[in-house]
Structure to design on (217 residues):
């Protein structure tokens, strides 16, 4: 007979799935704080609405974006960059809510990255059919800090490749509450999201929201 104290009790430790050296999926990690996140998200969007930005090549992105934090990621005909001002409202981006900050810090720590001092959160909204082609996150001033990426709403297929665009990418299903963290040797890995399948999420409806925390400056 086993004498394991924890026999028969559910395993409450977050599940972690290594996907590359320096990259991990934390399944369900954001679930316990989903209500706080969604409430804070609605407040942000009331001040800085989602918009479809233009790429430097003049294409409108299928993903709609907004930001919170000291700096926000923007793109237009003049290029990709971080800006402290929302170009639509001409006001600073809404501040990063405490629930966002602490979740990002805890997830980074769980993935092995200490003291993640995020100053920028890009918020992506995918409606059915929206996608993000393979890219690197390389507009930040500090590649020493990881990327922490929180999935909410409809499930998506996340593509995670290597350091070269031509490296083969693996596909991972990301569900409501899952967090992907990549840094260190994986910080500049190519990644993207396949076209979102239609569906209805119990809380968020026909969309997927992704919160991507970075250290921009
Ligand atoms: C991104 O790379 O900014 C978005 C990733 C995601 O939506 O999961
Ligand atoms: Fe990215």
């Amino acid at each position: 007979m086993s004498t394991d104290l924890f026999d028969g009790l559910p395993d409450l430790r977050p599940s972690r799935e290594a996907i590359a050296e320096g990259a991990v999926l934390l399944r369900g990690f954001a679930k316990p704080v989903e209500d706080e996140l969604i409430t804070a998200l609605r407040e942000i969007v009331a001040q800085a609405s989602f918009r479809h930005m233009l790429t430097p090549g003049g294409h409108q992105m299928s993903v709609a974006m907004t930001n919170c934090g000291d700096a926000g990621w923007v793109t237009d005909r003049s290029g990709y960059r971080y800006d402290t001002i929302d170009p639509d409202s001409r006001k600073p981006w809404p501040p990063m809510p405490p629930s966002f900050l602490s979740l990002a810090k805890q997830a980074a720590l769980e993935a092995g990255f200490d003291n993640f001092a995020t100053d920028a959160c890009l918020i992506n909204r995918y409606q059915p059919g929206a996608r993000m082609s393979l890219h690197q996150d390389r507009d930040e001033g500090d590649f020493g800090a990881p990327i922490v990426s929180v999935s909410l709403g409809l499930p998506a297929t996340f593509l995670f490749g290597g350091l070269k665009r031509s490296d083969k990418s693996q596909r991972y299903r990301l569900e409501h509450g899952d967090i992907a963290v990549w840094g260190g040797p994986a910080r500049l890995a190519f990644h993207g999201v396949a076209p979102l399948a239609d569906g209805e999420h119990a809380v968020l409806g026909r969309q997927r929201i992704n919160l991507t925390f970075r250290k921009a400056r």
